[in-house]
TrEMBL record:
Residues 29-161 form the DinB-like domain. It comes from the Bacteria. InterPro entries: DinB-like (IPR024775), DinB/YfiT-like (IPR034660). Signal peptide: none annotated. It comes from Hymenobacter saemangeumensis. This is DinB-like domain-containing protein. It holds the Pfam family DinB_2.
Amino acid sequence: MSSAPLLEVWLRGPVPAVPPLLQPVAHALLQAREEVQALMAGFPEEKLNEQPAGLASPAFHLQHLSGVLNRLLTYARAETLSEAQLTQFKAENEPVAGPDAGAQLVQRFSREVEAALAQLRGTSEATLTEVRGVGRAQVPSTHIGLLTHAAEHTMRHVGQLLVTVRVLQAAP
């Protein structure tokens, strides 16, 4: 007897302790984590930095997934980026190397998703329409706008990672 495929995260019910209005954000982040883990399982380390047809490399997407989620959640907390975050941002385009580099990047993303879920659990729905500044220019957004964009941007890069990985896996 074969087991039924796992339902997508949003069909599995509410994420415990996450406010109702933030459930879609939590669902998207959890779905992204599952997809990244499945996609990168067994992916060859030597292809992490490859850029087929000029596309961003899998290493870039993995680094960016963690970094941008961290940065957007910092802005959602109405905080400014630290020097460490700015340094990490500049390094996202750098190639990665070393044994288990891909697995380490996947683990880092998983930790960022856990941190995001913790932040969502501690978020009061009453703050969701509050203005939050983005970047050095403090371009105005809202708390919910930043959280929603964090989920949307994450899923966008998961899709781009999927295409790049599939192209690299199909290459001789």
